[in-house]
Fold these 2 entries.
Entry 1:
Amino acid sequence: MKLLISVVNSDDAHPLIDALMRDGYKATMISTTGGFLREGNATLLIGVADENVQDVLKVIKESCHSRTQYVNPLPPMVESGELYMPTPIEVQVGGAVVFILNVERFEKF
Ligand code: 2BA
């Protein structure tokens, strides 16, 4: 068994959950915040049999789309009286970041 930890855009999370449920997979969604953009995203925990990992990855790929976002970099130290005009930088976010972990043991009571 594997545990897939998948960080996805909040807008993609519900369509992804719907697609996983439709295909008979189980998932838990947690509201999370990205460390870089400090914006809300969603993290899905998906426990799945080894032979279904590729299929779940395909579902994630089909449901999650990459986006371009602009972020203002942190201002550098400026001398007093100097004016700092931040230039937004472009970052590509997602579709999905997926960590695949071995599950040592799974119990359900
Ligand atoms: P954030 O940390 O908010 O990052 C959003 C996007 O900003 C990233 O997209 C990446 O394109 C860019 N980015 C992140 N750190 C950067 C940096 N130090 N310099 C320049 N650009 C940077 P993704 O890579 O698609 O990541 C989307 C979200 O997935 C992340 O949101 C974070 O919540 C999670 N994530 C990504 N890699 C992770 C990792 N190694 N460990 C834990 N969470 C991760």
Note: The chain has a mean pLDDT of 93.
Entry 2:
Amino acid sequence: MRRITVFGATGSVGESTLDLLARRDDVAVVALTGGRQVARLAELARAHRAELAVTAHEECYRPLKEALAGTGIAVAAGPGAVVEAGYRPADWVMSAIVGAAGLAPGFAALSQGCIVALANKESLVTAGPLLLAEARAHGATLLPVDSEHSAVFQALVGEDIAAVETVTLTASGGGLRDWPLERLAQATVADAGAHPNWAMGQRITIDSASMFNKAMEVIEAREFFGLDPDQIRVLIHPQSLVHALVGFRDGAMMAHLGSPDMRHPIGYALNWPDRGALPVARLDLAAAGRLDFAAPDLRRYPALRLAGEVMRIGGAAGAVFNAAKEIALDHFIEGQIGFLDMAGVVEDTLADYMSRGSLGNAPKSLQEVLAIDAEARRRAAEVIRARGRAA
Ligand code: NDP
Ligand code: MG
């Protein structure tokens, strides 16, 4: 039996992971964690006979406890309890909490030397070098789950990373791809929250429309594969069938194609190093007919330009970038700032740090990353207030 824990079980990636686990009979579910969707968490814990169900919110303890009464499933609550779940012995752990909240649980899981399937890209953006060092120190294996990174990883099987010239991540362009530039400022949460190809959580869907998601993925690719920033490219590809391309020094390019279904990269990480059968739709390229590609317009997608800045600065820039982005996204979702203001807030927050000369030093521990994250959130909120006063 493989012992498996799923962080963020009630989310989009978590549910897809559990869908795959339900089809197997060689799996014992150790812990499932969730946030506010207590009833769903209880349902999943029952269905998968989990040993432990954890909600990240203290106030959700009682309803979760009641929902699981008489099942023998242990219950815990609070951010500390989520991290604790990562220390429960497991062979394979899915890290699919959204946001920087996924960082500490991922570190906990790595410390037991297991396989960690990483959907939480924020971990690599905020603490890439530390995360990889933690994995190495404990003999743990980190596998990419983000579809583009899984695609690159698969294209690199049997290849020498030194022979790689370029890595190209594709982007659908999100829900606002065909909007005229002048209208983007008016985009609402509903407009930005509708994705043409992928069914994902609300936050990442909005990040797809602003390309903050792709910006995070560029940084994620740099960290995960140890690439130079100028080796990483982004291509708009509206069909979302080619997930990434790897260019080699002999001029060859390996493309990874598949239907846009997260159960593919999740299943690849689950079956790795084997290639097991997966219940995903097969591509019919004749029916698809065409694959389109276009260079992204940086005026439309300032987030991509900011990702380049972040990689150039290094140090604490990734953690500040992510924290400011999360705060800006919160405010957009709450209707307090406009769609294009999100990039403005992130840019101003980075500039604020630059003017104080406090970005260059790389954090040396998880605690330092969390402290930078907390401080950057406060400063981003201050930037939003200042922009509001100036408007
Ligand atoms: P969702 O919003 O669908 O789910 C997030 C999960 O995290 C839920 O289980 C949620 O609980 C839980 N959660 C939310 N806040 C906290 C918190 N503060 N502490 C602990 N748990 C919390 O997100 P997705 O599944 O879309 O994305 C998860 C991660 O995977 C993100 O990092 C995303 O960037 C990445 N990813 C997602 C892809 C996708 O297709 N969805 C593709 C590639 C990467 P609850 O809902 O119960 O409140
Ligand atoms: Mg992706």
Note: The chain has a mean pLDDT of 97.
